[in-house]
Design a protein that fits this description.
about 50 residues; mainly alpha; flat; single chain
Length: about 50
């Protein structure tokens, strides 16, 4: 049985819950998200399969 999970929806769900619980985390969550997306864009997702 193969289970394929998309990473973006899981990250979005966790980030949304954290922002609701601790609104001060919004800046850090957005910054980390933008850095990760930028790195993926620069280096490509290549063989990254989640």
């Amino acid at each position: 049985m193969n289970l394929h999970l998309a990473l973006a929806p899981i990250v979005a769900l966790i980030a949304g819950i954290l922002i609701l619980a601790v609104p001060r985390l919004l800046n850090y969550i957005v910054a980390i998200y933008l850095i990760v997306i930028g790195l993926i864009g620069l280096f490509g997702s290549g063989n990254l399969r989640l």
